[in-house]
Amino acid sequence: xxxxxxxxxxxxxxxxxxxxxxxxxxxxxxxxxxxxxxxxxxxxxxxxxxxxxxxxxxxxxxxxxxxxxxxxxxxxxxxxxxxxxxxxxxxxxxxxxxxxxxxxxxxxxxxxxxxxxxxxxxxxxxxxxxxxxxxxxxxxxxxxxxxxxxxxxxxxxxxxxxxxxxxxxxxxxxxxxxxxxxxxxxxxxxxxxxxxxxxxxxxxxxxxxxxxxxxxxxxxxxxxxxxxxxxxxxxxxxxxxxxxxxxxxxxxxxxxxxxxxxxxxxxxxxxxxxxxxxxxxxxxxxxxxxxxxxxxxxxxxxxxxxxxxxxxxxxxxxxxxxxxxxxxxxxxxxxxxxxxxxxxxxxxxxxxxxxxxxxxxxxxxxxxxxxxxxxxxxxxxxxxxxxxxxxxxxxxxxxxxxxxxxxxxxxxxxxxxxxxxxxxxxxxxxxxxxxxxxxxxxxxxxxxxxxxxxxxxxxxxxxxxxxxxxxxxxxxxxxxxxxxxxxxxxxxxxxxxxxxxxxxxxxxxxxxxxxxxxxxxxxxxxxxxxxxxxxxxxxxxxxxxxxxxxxxxxxxxxxxxxxxxxxxxxxxxxxxxxxxxxxxxxxxxxx
Length: 591
Prior knowledge:
Strand content: 25-35%
Helix content: 10-25%
Structural class: alpha+beta
Number of strands: 31
Shape: extended
Largest sheet: 5 strands, mixed
Number of helices: 5
Distance between the termini: 155 Å
Strand order of the largest sheet: 4-5-6-7-11
Radius of gyration: 42 Å
């Protein structure tokens, strides 16, 4: 029960005051704090007012000593970055002197040089400038103290961190079908990305406002693309020209080839870019273009494309009305084999200007050498049995250092092949999810990247371990669709990785030095390992042929023995019949 008397409450008021004082001499000194408690006032209980209190029942009261907070949300404005130019004009000249006219400038200089004040100023300033120049020459501020010393990053645990995310500006969700770095790498800072919907009979394809644009991004500005490529049909693949970085070629969903020249645009290398040339639908591929590559030529304008319609076409970008050459991807040029649909393409001038590698929808690898067109059109078909993939091959690429070896990615595995054998020499373990692409590291000989349908990027380092993934990184919650690593053997790099997914988002990652910087003697070690695996596979092939030959000989011997036993049994039967005939004639003989 709580006793309350309102009158007493109103009358009785107690004010507690305490006076703090200190001497004048203690002013300005530092404060000394202590945790000692001091009693200021004590109110003793009394029963003088008991008669004036009444009991109130029931009484409910709530006491809360926690402080009250307010919640405030603040959304900052988005920072929009744009590129601007600045023009520096020469200044400091008198108004009557036009610095663009050489005669006026010379006349003014002669006049100033004859002035005594100018000569005195020069005599005073020249010694000071000479002294500063000597100091700069004495100490080289750009000197590399540890030049030539290679740092070993083997012990560093692998990792990767996200740097930027480039989202498709279109309102319709599309797949980032291909990612291609500028030939100059990260020093130029440009990334070409193609977008399309590759699902067969997808509902989005019926949208009349379906965008077809692809974009070129500046890696320092992820808010807005710098160039918009406007093809007649959405691009499935896009690639820079390595000799002329202002030109690109792309393959569309309707099978046509588009050529872009950024120099011929009215706004310069920015804004919207229309195709400079475009092929005719009737003389192009009948299926979406799987991949396209620039090939080595005297003019630098030739490219090659491959599609799932089973054709491989060569083009001259100066005139795309019809292909300059074509080839049917058939296993037998005489018509006895089957035609395979190309799903990926690889071309490397270091391996040979006439050599191509094609990954097919059927999981079979094909090698083309245009110098040997007399032999099956120059086509070599690799293993069609247990060595082939169990599905389409979305990625195929040669090793940048040892071009004789190449990697294929398909179904749930990644496999390393050599041109000398028709079977893979290294096969990765089966992943938990379907593989959608992959590529080699341009700087690390034994490192390659693999993208998966569950949004994870796996990094393999076969120079250290061929059975386990070196590093896995969760990139997205949806399936990944494309991947590309910047840099090359000549330019270096290898630290920036661009990964695209089915929602049109391209994530740029930076990997650690242990996955980008070449290790000591790595090239020699990886080459020795690949040669060893090649010899082991050759020995297994020889052993398999010997086993087959021995098995065939054993079957032939058994067959001959069975034939010999049948002949002997037949002779015995004929002898018995002859005896029976003789006995019969003897019994029926008339005396």
